[in-house]
Design goal:
This is Tyrosine specific protein phosphatases domain-containing protein. Belongs to the protein-tyrosine phosphatase family. Non-receptor class subfamily. GO terms for molecular function: catalytic activity, acting on a protein; F-box domain binding. It holds the Pfam family DSPc. Strands 1-2-5-3-4 form a five-stranded mixed sheet, sandwiched between helices. It is built from eight helices and five strands. The radius of gyration is 30 Å and the shape is extended. Helix 3 links the parallel strand 3 and strand 4.
Length: 309
């Protein structure tokens, strides 16, 4: 049949289509740009004004774990994503030399000061993780866990995991004067824990969206796996963070405008008393005492007129 007759007879075939189940568009994470040393060039700016992060140096962040140096055996180890944040599998959480900072994987002085396990509730792996956490506790390392019924619960746990990491870093800095080191891990170190680290990057840095967060995590830990469900989960959390920042910016701008516009000694909108709905009895308003009577007196508000009278 000629193409014009086929199009006329079957108009639904005039455009390209498929028989697959409708799905949302895939989120493509492009590889980051490389610098002259063939290393991913990703810059970071600290977002929250936290004194325990003021001394952190983000320069040459990815030189420690470049993609060109990646080997298959490194998937069983933990990698540094930030100078104070590590990502790895459950085997790294029971690696005593690594936890003590004696294996060359933890630069500078000191080892891991807290381990954060992300596990699925009521699973065989969660029981194995209990033994790993006991090993870390025997070494004097703080241990925290986040239990999930499914990966979809991660979006509700992201604020909690970020708060756990920052609270520990703040306490450790207050006690020792040094920035601690946190290891985030799950069974493989490639899925749930990678999502937690990516969410932390988005929440703590101004110039990191969900795409850049996944790029940085994969640049440091090449085997990290962000499937379509995890990508959409991080995209949804990024939308929440962006909305919160916009609301906070509008409220801050409004507060500054109220402060600068109000004359000295005058109350601002924040502490200005609300207008009362009732007039004060002693308020002298000449000619306005019976205003409602004057406006509506003598008027008829009947919904219809009886013409039978």
């Amino acid at each position: 049949m000629p193409s014009d007759l086929e199009t006329f007879s079957y108009p639904h075939k005039a455009a390209a289509y498929s028989y697959r189940v409708p799905t949302p568009p895939r989120i493509v994470v492009p590889p980051p740009a490389l610098n002259s040393d063939a290393l991913p060039e990703i810059s970071l700016l600290a977002f929250r004004s936290t004194n325990f992060l003021d001394s952190v140096d983000y320069n040459n962040l990815i030189t420690q774990n470049a993609l060109l140096e990646w080997t298959y055996e490194r998937r069983r180890e933990a990698q540094m994503v930030l100078p104070y944040l590590y990502l790895g599998p459950m085997t790294a959480a029971k690696d005593v030399p690594f936890l003590r900072g004696q294996a060359g994987h933890v630069p500078d002085q000191g080892g891991i000061t807290m381990v954060l396990g992300v596990r699925q509730r009521h699973s065989f792996e969660s029981k194995l993780m209990n033994g790993v956490l006991r090993k870390a506790q025997e070494m004097g390392i703080e241990c925290r866990t986040v239990d999930l019924a499914s990966n979809q619960d991660l979006i509700h746990s992201f604020p909690e995991t970020t708060a756990l990491i920052n609270d520990h870093l703040a306490r450790h800095f207050h006690i020792s004067g040094q920035v601690g080191k946190v290891l985030v891990f799950c069974e493989s170190g490639n899925e749930r824990s990678a999502g937690v680290v990516a969410a932390y990057l988005m929440e703590m840095h101004t110039d990191v969206d969900f795409i850049k967060a996944m790029q940085l995590v994969q640049a440091q830990r090449f085997c990290a796996n962000f499937d379509d469900a995890m990508k959409r989960l991080l995209q949804g959390y990024w939308d929440i963070l962006r909305a919160k920042r916009q609301v906070a910016a509008v409220e801050a701008a409004s507060a500054r405008a109220d402060t600068t516009a109000a004359p000295a000694g005058m109350p601002t909108n924040a502490n200005r008393p609300k207008r009362s709905l009732q007039r004060d009895e002693d308020e002298d308003m000449e000619g306005m005492t019976d205003d409602d009577v004057e406006r509506f007196g003598g008027r008829s508000f009947a919904p219809f007129m009886d013409h039978s009278l």
